[in-house]
Amino acid sequence: MMKTRNKMKKLEQEKFVVPKTVQNVIPIKAVYKDGIFLVGKNMYSKTFLFTDVNYYIACENEKNDLMRQYWAVINSFGNGVTVKLTINNHRFDKEDFEKSILMPYYYDNLDVYRKEYNEMLLNKAATSECIVQDKYFTVTVNKKCYEDARAFFTRIEKNLSTTLFALGSKCEPLNVTDRLKIFHNFYRAGNEENFNLDFELLQNQGCDVRDYISPDSMDFNSDYMMINGQYCRTVFLRNYGTFVDDNIITELTSINKNLMLSIDFIPIPVDEANKDVDNILLGVQSDKANFNRRQAQNQNYGATNYDLEQREKEILEIRNDMRYRDQRIYDTIISMVITADSKQELDNLTESIFAKASENSTAQFATLRYQQLDGLNTVLPFGVKRIECYRTLTTESLASFMPFHAQEVSHPGGAYYGQNAISNNMIFVNRHSLLNGNSIVLGVPGGGKSFMVKEDIVSIFLSNPDADIVIIDPEREYNALVKAFGGEVINISANSPNHINAMDMNANYEDEGNPVTTKSEFIMSLCEQLLGTSADAKDKSIIDRCCKNVYDGYIKNNFSTQQPTLKDFREELLKQKETEAHDLALAIELFTDGSLNTFAQPTNVDINNRLISYDILELGDSLLPVGMLIVLDNLLNKITSNREKRRQTYIFIDEMYLLFAHQYTAKFLYRIWKRVRKYGAFAIGITQNVGDMLESNTARTMVSNSEFVIMLNQKASDVLELSRLLEITPNQTQYFTNKDAGQGLMKIGSNLVPFVNKFPKDTQLYKLMTSKPGEAI
Fold first, then answer.
1. Strand ranges in 535-680 using DSSP code E only, listed in sequence order
2. Which of 338, 500, 520, 636 has the fewest Cβ atoms within 10 angstroms?
3. What is the pTM of this model?
């Protein structure tokens, strides 16, 4: 181990020169566009950003699995490198953050609601941690030239991406701009928005990049330093006991302050490690034999040296681990830099960190004396080591300093969906950032399901004037909100004066082919629903022929004349010579000329309103499946029309399980679910009857393929089914089992985030969104 340590020290050793400027204290010799830094003579480094995983909410077996997978990450770097794991806590700029999350005012009668929503967001921001935590691996290697270093880091990136992916983490190499921004934001905390480095311009002008990241001033004392008036202190892990809590890194980095913690480790070659361990074991056994001989000479035959026995036992365990458990040996340095606004605050933070370390894992941190600059350069992810306070650790011991804690989701331009139940940070989801922006909201009555959906509608409608929202409302829950926002409530029933023409079709109804062909398929499904049985080949041919005939004039006039109706379709059936056509006409007469003809007349409702709610509460059993099918087709017309206008469409389908109770509505919904994204639209399904819905294979496919699933409080019988379908572990299901309203678990892409979403009750928005008796408008 000393051999590798001395070799690395010799490679990294440089002649000391007293720095005359703040730029000189930054150990960067050259930088390259792809993010590779030259940090010493033939010493190149590169930094890789990786995402967090849900270690905190995993059960013990899952934690053990994650720990073993993290071993593979540590062991993947190979020999001849130095690896630096860095946890970077940095505060986001509050003013910029507020600007990015607050709704703009449009000076209409809805600004009163925007003001309430913005005040809620500001209150949540004030109670959140306001800390962003980034995690990096910085790898340093000795190579003859940049080209060799680049080829080496390409291999490292591939190996690191593979091993981290097995953990559920994503790895991304940082380019020169991203990497320099880390140091700029640390040295110039509070002025993060001023970073506007143009690397290619600097390269062409031959400028020193250190001028753009260095602080204005640095002042060093024996046990602290000042950077741009900010107090900083570097500390290191001096010692720790035989037990290390795997939560120690989380504890140390949970402070709501700018700080960095780094773990440097140098892999020791296996043959060298084996030889050193054997030599140490031989020494201990020799000491033990000498002790026993002296005791025998003194006729003290029962005496034992506990320390030697314990050391021999520990060394034998290490040797066995190396030989049989894929354990390696690492020389390790753990260091940390703390920042504060005053010397007193810095001292208090230092005491707090020392107490956290010793309390949870008997670890002992100490302040670096007269080595604050060396400690700082060691902590920051340059890829250098300037202090020597090594501890020798096995892979398992090193993995105990677990960097993973909890996944965070904060998409740029995202909507607010509550606060992370673990970190208290705000959750922002942008559906455009997901592979599939469709979402499902699941929860029992009283779990806050409809409230959360209404809050989503409020956020979209008030913040995005280029978005239309359509709601299918089978329980009449959204009328108050829709009317307050100037939307259109379309009551659909056999006795309603509102009519939706089942034959409505615009020019954009089909992407590339003939829209009549696609509409004909819909009419076939509609007729089968009306008939209550599947149409045979003759019936399908007749329906297709009649569809083309009734739309012929409409299409020839460039979709500008009166659209045909189901009555026109029935009359066309009667014109046909086949008996089957007349049978079809008779079968649908009730829905064209009879008492259930509400969908056989020209559309007479405002379907161009930005906010539309289809109130289908009063549809009878006979009309419900037909009505659902026609409303979905009407939605498809709006979506395709909006795509032409470059407007987004959000479709909210409440009590979605009702659609899966009927074959044709389920099939048509599935078709829309797959197609809406390419139309610039998003579908959101809501249901309380999870078990009923998941009996449909189509529904199961839709839920499992949805990138955004919100699970509020669930029935015990549904928890198991959901956990199997979405691969949620038993420990994670506790976040949507027996929970209060507004609490649950979100699946956002590959992330699982426990959340809490509470809205202030003393607002008009709350009264519009709540369903509680006595509180709702």
1. 611-615, 648-653
2. 520
3. 0.84
